[in-house]
Specification:
GO terms for molecular function: monoacylglycerol lipase activity; phosphatidylcholine lysophospholipase activity. This is Lysophosphatidylserine lipase ABHD12. One of its GO terms (cellular component) is endoplasmic reticulum membrane. Belongs to the serine esterase family. About 45% of the residues lie in helices and about 15% in strands. Strands 1-2-4-3-5-6-7-8 form an eight-stranded mixed β-sheet, with helices on both faces. Helix 8 packs across helix 9. The longest helix is centred in the N-terminal third of the chain and has 38 residues. It is globular.
């Protein structure tokens, strides 16, 4: 009996030990669950990371689809509506600087400049600035239109300046430099550039009208034509017309010129994302031609018979340097220019003149004096 009891006691003790072990196992499992719940690197966090990564990828896909859609839509829209391409050529919806009262050049420190308006055709008005040579600055103070008209009779030569796109008669910074060198400088805003629809034909007609207006006032005095950027296309159009009539100007100066508008459009930084797109010419360049926009200076130089000076900066990113050099090579071989001075002046990239800062060159007065064979005593 005792033995059995002892055996029972032994069994009871063994069972108690098992129960204790089971309880300890449950406790450990409970601790594991608690640790898993409080572990920031657990499976729940991993699922969250995967969810966020998936959301990010979806957003990137949506952005990519939108960008791709816009990329495809732009050439299609331009092809369907070629008038948009015309606006991109002329940039007449851009006015830099914007907050300028063009009626009051004196507000910009141009106290020797007169603002007035001419009417090349019925219903067409163009704004004009006439800046007299800086040596006449003091005399020009508070003078009226009659005085400015008579000032053309002075011995100083005249430059008709044709600015580029997105510009106005205010952006003629070169005019101040040229005025300081003893020139009258006349510049104007092409029709449609400050509202409306500009065209190559209209711009050239306006330039011709103003040229004749000036010529009537100066007689046989030298009259030079200076074009910058898109204005070089207008300038070569104008000079070609004058030469065809047998009345060439005294000289043509082209600053940052291109060969023709198709080559310039293809080389422009804005076209970089589409330049290698199949059908680029059909989508973009043919749309320019459809608007009757050519500005074919490379053709015009074969009909020009007056001295030609080309100025171009090697670091010009808007109109690449090679286009200006190519135009010079064509002009140098032109039969109509045979016997006339044709000169090309490059400006090294180290000078940083880029597209529109050649006027800062301290060599410019000497370049003009040498080319035009006239001294500049008022530097």
């Amino acid at each position: 009996m005792r033995k059995r009891k002892g055996s029972a006691d032994h069994d009871s003790s063994f069972t108690g030990n098992v129960t204790l072990l089971d309880g300890s196992s449950d406790l450990k499992q409970c601790h594991k669950k608690t640790d898993a719940a409080s572990d920031p690197g657990g499976s729940g966090t991993a699922m969250g990371r995967r969810y966020r990564r998936g959301g990010l990828i979806w957003r990137l896909r949506r952005i990519l689809i939108w960008v791709l859609g816009i990329y495809i839509a732009v050439p299609v829209i331009i092809k369907v509506c070629p008038s948009i391409q015309a606006k991109l050529v002329f940039l007449n919806f851009v006015r830099v600087p914007y907050f300028i009262d063009l009626k009051r050049p004196q507000d910009q420190g141009l106290n020797h400049t007169r603002n007035f308006y001419l009417q090349p055709e019925e219903g067409i008005n163009i704004g004009v600035w006439h800046t007299v040579p800086s040596v006449m600055w003091r005399e020009a103070q508070a003078k009226d239109a009659e005085w400015y008209d008579k000032s053309f009779q002075s011995s100083h030569p005249v430059i008709l300046y044709l600015h580029g796109n997105a510009g106005t008669r205010y952006t003629n910074t070169q005019g101040l430099v040229l005025s300081s060198l003893g020139y009258h400088v006349v510049t104007f805003d092409y029709r449609g550039m400050l509202g409306g629809s500009p065209s190559e034909k209209g711009m050239t007609s306006d330039a011709l009208f103003l040229y004749q207006w000036i010529k009537q006032r100066i007689g046989q005095k030298p009259l030079y034509i200076w074009g910058h950027s898109l204005g070089t296309g207008v300038a070569t159009n104008l000079v070609r017309r004058l030469c065809d009539r047998g009345t060439p100007p005294d000289a043509l100066i082209l600053e940052s010129p291109f060969t023709n508008i198709r080559e310039e459009a293809k080389s422009h930084p804005f076209s970089l994302v589409y330049r290698y797109l199949p059908g680029f010419d059909w989508f973009f360049l043919d749309s320019i031609t459809a608007n009757d926009i050519r500005f074919a200076s490379d053709e015009n130089v074969n009909h020009i018979s007056c001295p030609v000076l080309i100025l171009h900066a090697e670091d010009d990113t808007v109109v690449p340097f090679q286009l200006g050099k190519k135009l010079y090579d064509l002009a140098a071989q032109s039969k109509s220019l045979n016997g006339h001075k044709v000169q090309f002046i490059p400006f090294p990239s180290s000078l940083g003149y880029r597209h529109k800062f050649i006027y800062k060159s301290p060599q410019l007065p000497h370049i003009l004096s040498d080319f035009l064979s006239v001294p500049h005593p008022h530097v």
